[in-house]
């Protein structure tokens, strides 16, 4: 996933300059834009619930907790592309 999509997802009230956007892009390889957005939203909730500062580490944790549909549904996605 390109760093540009990450900057867009982080733009809602966050400064993307404060995030390791390239690292997040590499960690979310295969994720759709919606899945990236959900990781950011989940990280915001986690930040509020835990009192931790919102940052790339929280987003990384959310990415690690899920798998993109392109992986989970690889066979079905391939069939649709045929």
Task: Walk me through what this model shows.
- The chain has 82 residues and is mainly alpha-helical.
- Helix content is 66%, strand content 0%.
- It is built from six helices and no strands.
- The protein has helices spanning 3-10, 21-27, 33-50, 56-64, 69-72, 74-81.
- α1 packs across α2 (21-27).
- The protein is elongated, with a radius of gyration of 13 Å.
- 18% of the residues are buried.
- The model has no long low-confidence stretch (mean pLDDT 80).
Distance between the termini: 23 Å
Low-confidence stretches: none
Class of secondary structure makeup: mainly alpha
The chain-level mean pLDDT equals 80
Following the backbone from N to C, one meets helices and strands in this order, namely: HHHHHH
Please give the share of residues in helix: 55-70%
Largest sheet: none
At a glance:
It is built from 6 helices and no strands. 66% of the residues lie in helices and 0% in strands. The chain is mostly helical and 82 residues long.
List the helices and strands and how they pair.
Blueprint: H1 3-10, H2 21-27, H3 33-50, H4 56-64, H5 69-72, H6 74-81
Helix pairs in contact: 1-2, 1-3, 3-4
List keywords for this structure.
82 residues, elongated, mainly alpha
């Amino acid at each position: 996933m390109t760093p540009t999509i990450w900057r867009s997802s982080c733009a809602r009230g966050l400064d993307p300059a404060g995030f390791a956007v390239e690292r997040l892009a590499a960690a979310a390889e295969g994720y759709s834009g919606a899945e990236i957005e959900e990781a950011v939203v989940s990280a915001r909730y986690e930040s509020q619930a835990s009192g931790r500062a919102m940052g790339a580490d929280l987003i990384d944790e959310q990415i690690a907790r899920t798998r993109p549909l392109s992986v989970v549904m690889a066979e079905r996605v391939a069939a649709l592309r045929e």
